[in-house]
């Protein structure tokens, strides 16, 4: 095998430039058209897959592309003790079976969506009463802090407290303020430990309470590593907040800038349900999910050596013209719509049914609770998050109440 140094190419792109961050989809479109399998020297060097066919191929190859070394580019602060994101086969499926049975529960989904809808109604009413607010910081983020306490039946902290803790963790990780991120992570581990300890003493229905299901699977010998049981409950706290809050923020930005679409949905709210998958296709936030190659691989005619970090840039695949006709246009009720917003393969999101219900409910309540909304700053002044996410950091708005 050739040495890695001999195989390292020139860098094709830099995801941390102001130009790329300002319009990531434009940058990803350029890569998909010109260098669909691209190399960047950022973060110690990584490859980026941008075509849907390559992304599906990579997501299905869980034997040669593994998660336990890293699951994002850049590498996060975590180790490899948090299933499902950090685990490989056969361990991955053992944990996913336990988690999927809970998060796939219709009873849990219906209750969570109902509670999230009510909380969304309260939050948007608060903003509408003031006439101004921030749809990211005051609506999407705290709503997902609340959703976490609802999904996982957490009583120790409020949704707002959970929101602040996860926000500190994410911000600390992005700007590499290790102490801020580590303190927030310690808080989440404390909450998780207390949650699991409570369920050992006071079990709930394991079909709709993940902590109980994990504890009982551990006691039955199905899950054997206590630290990973803890990690399996801890990891979703961050994932739910990141994926869904960022998705909602991207959706809100679209509604604030695509006035024709907003008018259609306001005039006919029944179209919202038909639009959810198209919102997810176009507005998925996570561009840095990754795998590590265990052998030399080839994608799109480029040789990727063993030991490489490979980013699965699902949002780029969601706009691949080889799969999606007129991919840059939002088409209500697009059929078929094989988007990759929930990933693909064994690592696809186990909570997608809950997420779909929450996203629809929140959009409906945004429209139901307002007569109109508009950005209060020029669109080019909206601060943007950088790789590994595609989202706005703030969405200041003026709101007309009903």
Q: Can you tell me the CATH architecture? A: Orthogonal Bundle
- What structural category do the secondary elements indicate? alpha+beta
Number of domains: 1
The helix/strand series, from N terminus to C terminus, equals HHHEEHEHHEHHHHHHHEEEEHHEE
Percentage of residues assigned to helices: 40-55%
State the CATH class.
Mainly Alpha
**How many distinct beta strands?**
10
Give a quick account of the main beta sheet: strands, pairing sense, barrel closure.
Answer: 5 strands, mixed
Shape: globular
| Strand fraction | 5-15%
User: What average pLDDT do the residues reach?
Assistant: 93
What can you tell me about this protein's structure?
This protein is of the alpha+beta class and 402 residues long. The chain has one domain (4-401): Cytochrome p450, CATH 1.10.630.10. The protein has helices spanning 4-7, 18-22, 24-34, 52-60, 91-103, 106-130, 136-151, 159-174, 178-201, 210-219, 226-257, 259-267, 272-283, 314-317, 352-368, and strands spanning 37-40, 46-49, 65-66, 132-134, 290-293, 297-299, 302-304, 309-312, 370-375, 396-401. Strands 1-2-8-5-3 form a five-stranded mixed sheet. The longest helix has 32 residues, at 226-257. It is globular and about 60 Å long.
């Amino acid at each position: 095998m050739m040495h890695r140094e001999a195989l390292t190419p020139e860098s094709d792109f830099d995801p941390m430039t102001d130009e790329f961050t300002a319009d990531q989809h434009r940058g990803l479109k350029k890569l998909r058209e010109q260098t669909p399998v691209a190399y960047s020297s950022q973060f110690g060097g990584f490859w980026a897959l941008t075509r849907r066919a390559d992304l599906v191929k990579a997501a299905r190859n869980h034997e040669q592309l593994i998660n336990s070394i890293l699951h994002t580019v850049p590498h996060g602060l975590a180790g490899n003790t948090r299933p499902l994101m950090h685990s490989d086969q056969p361990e991955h499926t053992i944990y996913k079976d336990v988690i999927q049975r809970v998060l796939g529960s219709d009873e849990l989904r219906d209750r969570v969506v109902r509670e999230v809808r009510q909380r969304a109604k309260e939050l948007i009413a608060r903003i509408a009463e003031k006439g101004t607010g921030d749809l990211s910081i005051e609506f999407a983020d705290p709503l997902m802090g609340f959703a976490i306490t609802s999904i996982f039946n957490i009583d120790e902290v409020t949704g707002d407290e959970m929101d602040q803790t996860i926000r500190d963790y994410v911000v600390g990780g992005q700007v590499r303020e290790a102490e801020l991120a580590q303190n927030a992570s310690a808080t989440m581990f404390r909450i998780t430990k207390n949650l699991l300890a409570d369920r050992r003493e006071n079990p709930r229905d394991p079909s709709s309470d993940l902590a109980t299901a994990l504890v009982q699977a551990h006691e039955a010998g199905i899950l054997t590593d206590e630290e990973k049981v803890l990690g399996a409950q801890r990891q979703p706290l961050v994932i739910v907040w990141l994926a869904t809050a960022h998705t909602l923020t991207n959706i809100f930005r679209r509604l604030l800038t695509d006035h024709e679409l907003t008018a259609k949905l306001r005039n006919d709210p029944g179209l919202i349900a038909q639009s959810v998958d198209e919102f997810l296709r176009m507005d998925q936030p996570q561009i840095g999910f990754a795998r590590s190659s265990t052998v030399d691989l080839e994608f799109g005619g480029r040789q990727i050596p063993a030991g490489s970090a490979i980013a699965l840039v699902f949002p780029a695949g969601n706009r691949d013209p080889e799969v999606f006709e007129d991919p840059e246009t939002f088409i209500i009720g697009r059929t078929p719509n094989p988007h990759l917003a929930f990933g693909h393969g064994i690592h696809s999101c186990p909570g997608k049914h809950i997420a779909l219900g929450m996203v629809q409910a929140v959009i409906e309540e945004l429209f139901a609770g307002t007569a109109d909304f508009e950005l209060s700053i020029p669109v080019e002044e909206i601060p943007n998050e950088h790789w590994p996410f595609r989202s706005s950091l703030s969405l200041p708005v003026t709101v007309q109440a009903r």
